[in-house]
Structure formats: C-alpha cells, structure tokens
Design goal:
about 675 residues; alpha+beta; Phosphorylase Kinase, domain 1; 8-stranded antiparallel beta sheet; 16 helices; disordered N terminus; binds 2-acetamido-2-deoxy-beta-D-glucopyranose; transmembrane; Prot_kinase_dom
Length: about 675
C-alpha cells in the first residue's frame, strides 16, 4: 500500500510540470469529445460546437478552463511571460436589452472556482476573498450590468480585474474603426463578437481589442500598463467564467485560441459555429458503440458504486439540536414515501426557494406539500430551523399552515398543508384562464390582508413576510387566499457569508428603499401588498418586460390612468365589466397608496384591513400625488436601468411544471419572472 501511495504522490507531483508542455491552444469551435476542457456550473459544450458558459437561467455561474495549467512565468527570473488570446463570443440576453451579468476571460491559480458567487461576482470571487493578493486572479471582464458596489462605469464595459471585481482599468465596449473613430458595440446585443487580449511582458502592457468581425482593429479599446509577474504563479489555468443574476443572459464562446510567448493563431468568425436559433428539435444521435466486456465490467462497478453512494446518502444523520426543536420533525423516509421518492410527477412547482412536491402521508392520508430547499451552510441552517419552529407556531386561517420539517444533509424539507387550488398567479395569468370573478378576488385580497396583519401585529413578535406576491398567495379548496412562504426569505438573508446581508424579495413588489437600506420592515410588506392589489384588479404582473414602455411598470401605468381620470381602463378586461365599481376603485386607490415611494406615507396593514372592510373611507385626494409626481420624471428606461444596472441578484426565475393531469392543482409555487436578491456589504 505504502509504495503505491508514494508512487501516486510522486506522480501527482510530477504531473503539473509534465502536462505544462502545452504552450498553445486552438479551438475553432469545440467538440463534445474535448476532454481537455474542464467544465463546471452550468457550462457545457453543445453538440453544435458552442461552449455555453451559462444559459439564460437566473443566478447561475459556469466555468470552462483548459484542463492543464500553463507555465506563465519563468521560475528562475520570476518574470511573467507574454501571452496572446483570441476568442469569439456572444451574449444573448433573456429579454431584449435585459440580461446579465457578463463573463470574463480568466487566468487563475485554480480551475475550481465553485466557491465563487454568481451575479456581479461573475463567478470569479466571493465576498470573502475579494481583493486578496493571494487570489492570483487576472480577468478581463465583459460586463453587461453596472454594479455601483464595484464602481462600474456603465452596463456595457470591458474591464481588467486583478484579484478584484473593481476593475483596475475599464472602457465602454467598442472598437476603433480607424485611428480616431470609436464605434460603440453592445456586448449583449446577441451578435458574435471577436476579442483579442495581448500581454507584452517586456513593455508590461495588456491590450484588449474587440470587433464585430474578424478583422482586427489596429488600436485596442483598452490598454493598461501592468506587470503581471507578481500576480501570476508559475502555473496558472486559463479559461472563462460567466454568471447570471436577477437578469440572465446566455454566454457563449464560439472559438478560442491562446498562446504563451507568441501570437495566438487567428480565428475566422465565418468558420466558427453559428448561434443556436430558437429551440430546435434534437436529431437522433447515431452512436456506434462496441460493447466490450470491459465496458460491462465498468458499468457493473459503476452501478455498485452508485448503489453504495446512494445508501450512504440516504442514511439520515440527526444532530442533537434537531431533537430539541418543535414543531414536528418528520423522518426523511416518511416524506420520501409520501412523495413517491420525490417523483417528478409529484412536482408542483419550482421556485426561488426550491422545489415543491405534492405528497400524501401514508398513515394519516393527509395531503401535504413538501418544499425542498438546499442550503449552502449547515450553520445558517440551524439558525433557520429554529426560526421555522417559531414560525410553525403561527396559526391563522389566511396563512398556509406549516406542519413540520426535516433536514437531511444540506437539504431542508418543509411540510405544509396542501392547497387544493394552487397559487393565485395561476388564476391571474395562466392560459387558458380560469377567471376568478370580482367577489372571489375581493375575498382573496381581504384574506391576504388579514393574514399579513396577523404576521405584523398578531403574534408575540413582528414577522415580516418579505416576499408578498401573487405566487405566494395560495388558494384552499374554498378559494380563501392564504399566504405562504412567510419567513422563508430569512434563510436567504442569512447568506453563507457572514457580514453580508441580502435583500430578498421580488422585482415589482420590492419597496424602493429596500435595496438602499437593506432593511425589511412592515412598510415594505405593505408596498408589496399594494403591488398585489393592483395585480389582482388589473390582471397584470407588476412588471411586464414585454409590454410597451408606458405599460411595463404596472404602478406607473395605473397612476397615469388615475391622473387622466380613466382608472377603470386599467381593470382586468377578463372581468368583462362585471364588478362593483366602488370596490374596484377603492382597491386601485389603495394599491397606489400602499405603493407610495415614501415608507411613511404607506398605511399600516391595520388601516388597510379597515379600508377593505369598509370601516374607513379612503381619502378622496390621494396624498400620494406629490410623491408620484416626483417620480414621474423617471422614464421606463431609467427605471429599468435603476434595477438592471445595479447589482440585483435573482433568487431564480421559476417555471411551472405541468404534470400532465388535467385539473391537477398546485400547492405552493413561486413563479415570479424576476426574483430579487441583492447582496449588500
Ligand atoms: C483537446 O482534445 C482534443 C480531443 O481530445 C484534441 O483533438 C485536441 O488536440 C486537444 N487540444 C489541445 C489544445 O490539447
Ligand atoms: C440551462 O441549463 C440547465 C443545466 O444544463 C438546464 O437544467 C436548464 O433547463 C437550462 N435552462 C434553459 C432556459 O435553457
Ligand atoms: C528564464 O530566465 C532565465 C534568467 O533570466 C533565462 O536564462 C532563461 O532563458 C529564461 N527561461 C525562459 C524559458 O525564458
Ligand atoms: C487572504 O487569503 C489568505 C489565504 O486564503 C488568508 O490567509 C488571508 O487571511 C486573506 N487575507 C485577507 C486580508 O482576507
Ligand atoms: C488593481 O486593483 C486592486 C483592487 O482595486 C488593487 O488592490 C491593485 O493594487 C490594483 N493593481 C494594479 C496593478 O493596479
Ligand atoms: C457610445 O457610447 C457612449 C457612452 O458609452 C455615448 O456617450 C456615445 O454617444 C455613444 N456613441 C454612439 C455613436 O452611439
Ligand atoms: C498595445 O497597444 C498599443 C497601442 O495602443 C501598441 O503600441 C502596443 O504595441 C500594443 N501591445 C500589444 C502587446 O499588443
Ligand atoms: C469589419 O468591420 C469594420 C467596421 O465595421 C469594417 O470597416 C470592415 O470592413 C469589416 N471587415 C470585414 C472583413 O467585414
Ligand atoms: C389635493 O392634494 C393636492 C396636493 O396635495 C392639493 O394641492 C389639492 O388642493 C388637494 N385637493 C383637494 C380637493 O383637497
Ligand atoms: C376555481 C377552481 O378551480 N376551484 C376549485 C378549487 O378546489 C376545489 C376542491 O378541489 C374544486 O372543487 C374547485 O373546482
């Protein structure tokens, strides 16, 4: 055994210098079979030859590094070598003009950057190691979101980053068409762009050049004097890192060449893979596989390993503290059985906080909804579970009852009452619509208001929901509105990095002061409730990126209608005019009142409930006028800019999974198109 280990360690010791003989790369498109590229996150090499760093899924990152390190430095003199890189890329945003965050050509001391953060960190660093000289990180970022935290110059720039996300030098993306004319180039325009990065170790200059075609402009767009010798270690990995946040783009690399001490082989855009069009069907793959006995043995070993690992994974480890905490702690296998082993068919929805499965407890036959959340750190989990326990004691007919919980490893399972009629947003937006009439809507609104009032004032401590929105309003079999997911946002607020807090919420429901102060309050719940009121009355999402600019932001649009005296125009047309006009008007006005930009001007939930119960009458003259007027100067572009360009960070966007059975109901689902989560330091 010992000699074998010795052999191994000698071997691994030698393996770095041995494989570093490579001084040049040339990938005119990529192949599925290229095993010399190490991928992680959601990066993958597509069959069409494109290296996809991220697709347009929110809050993910992807890395692709050449598997072996390069020798970047002369070990005896300690001087960095010159290098040259060329690659072609494309950034295709999720919505036109709305995408993020960007990608970076990266030279790093490790090819494993899984500890980094997505969003504004571009998958390069995290809040803990940022700015640390021992990171040995060099990156050229192609950034499509303006992060004020990192002093970004705009939302379309190229920057040189050394051990940091604050660029040492940056320039708006563009190129020189001749020695004096600069042309702008929008990185996230979806077109193919070619880039050249050259470092001259004699002049100590790094140049970055981009172009919409393969003819290289004679002047670089960014030129920075720096000696990379202290930054580089002798062996460094070279590749790409990309990330998405609240705003997501697909980041593609179409071809890549690289060379140490020489000019990278030139790439020709016309011979590189072209971008995928709208979703294509997969053509059948024909693979010739010769099944040798070796393969059989291999698969036997594989299956055996899989079974062993599975067994280990299924073993439930219960820590002492877990036994001290009420409410009910379910056994993992009990929930597994209840949900048919977390069968895809039982999936009710997929949300920012995790997946939700429908289940039936075998003993009691009770129908439940099981939310499965993966948490980053065990420590935060304990804290969170105690909070769940305290929240579990909350009882109100307009809250979704939390029945219990279970932890396995980093997975947290939360068990709720099953809500037969699914979530409110399904009724408001899903096609084909099952239209709720006005009486039903009003009952739901009133229910949610009294649930929220209970959270704010009815319990021994103030509970702030933090994520009031249509998809968190669930409907029981009698179509009562019940708030779900209360308190869950806390989990994300205690992020894995101590010292960072994140603002959790959903775009369009997020009170404007929140990103600034980072402090959730009852008044921020009221803001979100206001957005919900407008949403229910108008049958439209608070932000509709696909609508015309005037109509995109629901609050602004309703306010416009209100000022022009035709506010009933904003009412959901599918109500077909069948509603109590006074009530609808009141709800719209109340929505505007709650959505006031100034927290102090918003009513409390107690007042809101009085208005809804008809015990108090809304002032005729909305005092919001002034506040809204000050905001009216802000156009849609600026509004988008104000969130698109700051470092908001999506929990994730969510999608329904239809399980194919007509009439199947959803329990707890989260379907906000854009969920917000921003890290502030
Ligand atoms: C990468 O691997 C592919 C296939 O395994 C091979 O054809 C190619 O030459 C390799 N490229 C480099 C730069 O090592
Ligand atoms: C993005 O990639 C992930 C992982 O490959 C996949 O699960 C997801 O469906 C993809 N999303 C889109 C929008 O293509
Ligand atoms: C490294 O530096 C030493 C001393 O400056 C020099 O003699 C040697 O040629 C260099 N090696 C390479 C590979 O550049
Ligand atoms: C920098 O990183 C090193 C190694 O990870 C660590 O020991 C050191 O404390 C860090 N320095 C700072 C200032 O965070
Ligand atoms: C680059 O920026 C980082 C952080 O802003 C700073 O610590 C470092 O000294 C800069 N390096 C150079 C070479 O300018
Ligand atoms: C290029 O972009 C800059 C800001 O980044 C802007 O000031 C300038 O007007 C743009 N030029 C053109 C030709 O669009
Ligand atoms: C960088 O660009 C400057 C012109 O701005 C040029 O003089 C220099 O040779 C370039 N260096 C490299 C390594 O491309
Ligand atoms: C590349 O683009 C530049 C600027 O748009 C243009 O002047 C040049 O003719 C183009 N070259 C080719 C080969 O298309
Ligand atoms: C309504 O409010 C505005 C501004 O607060 C004020 O100027 C106006 O006189 C008020 N109108 C009535 C009828 O109270
Ligand atoms: C509108 C709607 O879908 N209502 C349903 C709510 O749930 C009950 C019980 O499952 C059904 O009977 C209703 O049809």
């Amino acid at each position: 055994m010992f000699p074998f280990l010795l052999f191994l360690s000698v071997f691994s010791f030698l393996s770095i210098p041995a494989s570093s003989q490579v001084t040049e790369l040339f990938f005119p498109g990529f192949k599925h079979t290229d095993t010399n590229i190490t991928l992680d996150g959601i990066a993958q090499i597509e069959k069409n030859g494109i290296l996809t760093l991220t697709n347009a899924t929110n809050r993910f990152m992807g890395h692709a590094f050449y598997s072996s390190p390069f020798r970047f430095k002369n070990s005896s003199s300690g001087e960095a070598f010159s290098f040259s890189a060329s690659f072609a890329f494309a950034i295709v945003p999720e919505y036109p003009k709305l995408g993020g965050h960007g990608f970076a050509f990266t030279i790093a001391s490790s090819k494993d950057l899984r500890g980094a953060l997505p969003s504004q960190y571009l998958g390069l660093l995290n809040a803990g190691n940022i700015g640390n000289f021992s990171d040995h990180l060099f990156a050229v970022e192609f950034d499509t979101v303006q992060d004020f935290e990192f002093q970004d110059i705009n939302d379309n720039h190229i920057g040189i980053n050394i051990n940091s996300m604050t660029s040492n030098a940056s320039a708006p993306a563009g190129y020189y068409s001749d020695s004096s004319t600069k042309q702008n180039l929008t990185l996230k325009s979806g077109i193919r762009i070619q880039a050249w990065i050259d470092y001259d170790s004699v002049q100590n200059v790094i140049n970055v050049t981009i172009s919409p075609n393969s003819s290289r402009p004679s002047l670089p767009i960014l030129s920075f004097r720096v000696d990379l010798s202290p930054i580089f270690q002798e062996f460094m990995y070279v590749g790409f890192s990309a990330s998405t946040g609240l705003l997501a783009s697909a980041h593609y690399v179409l071809g890549w060449s690289f060379k140490i001490n020489g000019e990278a082989q030139s790439l020709d855009l016309s011979s590189l893979p072209s971008l995928p069009g709208p979703k294509k069907k997969h053509t059948a793959l024909t693979i010739g596989v010769s099944v040798s006995s070796a393969l059989l043995v291999l698969s036997a070993i594989f299956i055996a390993t899989y079974l062993i690992i599975k067994q280990i994974k299924d073993r439930e480890v219960i820590e002492d503290w877990e036994l001290e905490i009420g409410p009910q702690r379910y056994r993992y296998h009990e929930l597994k059985k209840a949900t048919n082993n977390f069968n895809e068919k039982m999936l009710l929805g997929r949300g920012g906080f995790g997946q939700v499965f429908k289940g039936t407890l075998k003993d009691s036959k009770l129908e439940i909804a099981v939310k499965r959340i993966s948490h980053e750190s065990n420590q935060g989990l304990r804290e969170f579970v105690s909070e769940i326990a305290s929240i579990g004691r909350l009882r109100h007919r307009n809250l979704v009852q939390l029945l219990g919980w279970c932890r396995r490893g980093k997975d947290l399972l939360i068990v709720y009452d099953f809500m037969a009629n699914g979530s409110l947003d399904k009724f408001l937006f899903d096609e084909p619509k099952i239209v709720l009439n006005w009486e039903q809507r009003y009952k739901i609104i009133k229910g949610v208001a009294s649930g929220l009032l209970y959270l704010h004032e009815g319990y021994e401590q103030v509970v702030i929901h933090r994520d009031v929105k249509a998809s968190n309003v669930l409907l029981d079999s009698e179509l009562n509105g019940r708030l779900g997911d209360f308190g869950l946002a806390r989990l994300y607020e205690h992020g894995s990095n101590p010292g960072t807090t994140r603002v959790v919420g959903t775009l369009g429901y997020l009170a404007p002061e929140l990103p600034r102060t980072g402090k959730a309050a009852t008044s921020s719940d009221v803001y979100a409730f206001g957005a919900l009121l407008l949403e229910v009355a108008c049958g439209r999402r608070p932000i509709e990126p696909k609508a015309t600019p005037e109509e995109s932001v629901l609050i602004d649009w309703v306010w416009d209608r209100f000022r022009e005296g035709d506010v009933l125009e904003a009412v959901d047309p599918s109500l077909d005019g069948q509603y109590d006009e006074g009530q609808v008007l009141m709800v719209l006005k109340l929505g505007l009142l709650c959505s006031n930009d100034t927290p102090m001007a918003r009513p409390s939930m107690r007042q809101v409930v009085r208005y809804l119960d008809g015990e108090a009458v809304l002032p005729d003259n909305l005092s919001v006028a002034a506040a809204f007027d000050s905001r009216k100067g802000i156009g849609f572009d600026e509004f988008l800019h104000s969130f698109a360009s700051s470092s908001f960070d999506g929990i994730s966007s969510t999608s329904f999974k239809d399980n194919g059975h007509a009439g199947t109901s959803f329990a707890s689902v989260s379907t906000s198109p854009l969920s917000l989560l921003r890290e502030t330091r």
